[in-house]
Amino acid sequence: MNIMIVGVGGQGTLLASRILGNAVIAEGYDVKVSEVHGMSQRGGSVVTYVKFGDKVYSPIIDKGEADIILAFEMLEAYRALPYLKKDGVIIANNQMINPMPVIIGAMEYPKDIEKKISNLVNLECLDAAKLAKEAGNIKAVNVVLIGVMAKKTNISYEKWVEIIKNTVPAKLLDVNLKAFDLGYNYK
Predict the structure, then answer these.
(1) pTM given for the model
(2) Comparing C-alpha atoms, which of 140, 174, 177 is closest to residue 161?
(3) pLDDT 10s per residue in the chain (187 long)?
(4) DSSP letters along 153-173, please?
(5) Domains, the chain, ordered by start
(6) Strand residues in the chain grouped as ranges (E)
(7) Counting Cβ atoms within 10 Å, is residue 169 exposed (0-12), middle (13-18) or buried (19+)?
């Protein structure tokens, strides 16, 4: 299974990859994770590849190989399109964060981006920020999206909860468990 996690710096993509990696390790899979940091501290792109199976030799996901793309932001989902398998799915937060070229007026954010993506691939788009707020912290978008994705795996709900308890700092545990539950039960 090849999962690509894409977002911008500060959105919690690395925690999401840690939760995912820990979950599949706990299930006995061989796992390889590769993190690519752009200007992550300045809101730049962050991409994480998570590959798992009986035996995995390389952490890199090439174009056309991602089973799932977990996108924390719509432009990052759009940029990741070439990596999705023909029958893959993009699970995306509907948030739109202006990159620096848009902020300085050198470019425009693509119009109707959600529609453009959904016309090309299987897209599950949701307002993960709204669910994160409902859980108690807007920063829990990452765990909301992990919850949506978790339902597509053969890993039990209880195992995911155990992994979150062992991965997330204690002071943030209640919010993240609520966020995971809201994502898992979305739709």
Answers:
(1) 0.92
(2) 177
(3) 999 999 887 788 888 999 999 999 999 999 998 877 555 455 678 899 999 999 999 889 999 999 999 999 999 999 999 999 999 999 999 998 888 788 888 888 889 999 999 999 999 999 999 999 999 999 999 999 999 999 988 899 999 999 999 999 999 999 999 999 999 999 8
(4) SSS-HHHHHHHHHHHS-GGGH
(5) 2-184 (3.40.920.10)
(6) 2-8, 30-37, 45-53, 66-71, 84-93, 122-126
(7) exposed
